Model the fold of this input.
Amino acid sequence: MITQDSKKKNLSGTIMKVSLIGLGIMGEPIARNLLKAGFSLTVFNRSLIKSNPFKGLAVIAGSAQEAISASDVTILVVPSEKEIDEVLHVVDSRIQAQIKNKIIVNIATVAPEYSERISIEITAAGGNYIEAPVSGSRKPAEEGNLVILAAGEDTYIDRIQHIFSAIGKTTLRCGAPPNAMRMKLANNLLLIGMLEAFVEAYHFAHQIGVDTEQFLNLILSGQMANDFFRTKATKLLTDDFTQQAALRNVAKDTHLICQEAKRNGIHIPVALVNESLFKQAFEAGLGDEDIIAVMKIFEKINFNPCK
Done:
């Protein structure tokens, strides 16, 4: 009989040790769900203050290498390629961190070209790479309802599937890296375009004198209703710009989408406009606010989508 506890065990029959690096807007709730599921957890964050809430709950590592060495599996929930290179101590395309026989799971959204390259470098260093970007923001992360897009060898995905089940409701297997990252970018092209249009429509309705609460009730009562719009509607009505999906990440992801499109000779005109829009919003100092803060840019007469 397979029990929940047996699913958490590694090949030696002991409880699998998991490390998580990056306790930001997504990493913190992911870590809490791993603890809730009963994993032996080690955490590390560059800013040690973010580790404080985990004292007595998880092992607090003093460095990224200490976290990697402590566990069978290390999950990277860091902002970008730069931080991944720092964690793995990449020098001249060679990983200096000691990762032999370790499984490295990357949740960060990065360029597919980079993910493919780091996969090769991790393998060369004796480790095993699984790219696992997620669909979902802070609230689904807190609820354990993320959708995990996994790419890597099935043997290793099978070995850590119980980890994915602790933090998400669905795991989609996408083949080899960087297919999960490509899937994430395609997903985000639609998601960002949809949310930008929602905020823009709200702004338009407000400016032409429409009752905005009634407008939102219209949207949420019809075929366009979805969980994203429901969450953002409440924030729009209360001018709540605290981040669930950080605008800085939206700007980064939109840039990655446009980069990948250019690399493949694909024309995506709306995404190109959004790239310019979110770049301007980020440069205006809105990076740490929610995606809906892009509304603050709409009233700027100097916005030029062709900039």
Notes: Confidence is low (pLDDT under 50) at residues 1-6. DSSP finds 13 helices and eleven strands in the chain. Residues 4-177 form a domain with the Rossmann fold fold (CATH 3.40.50.720). The two ends are 62 Å apart (CA to CA).
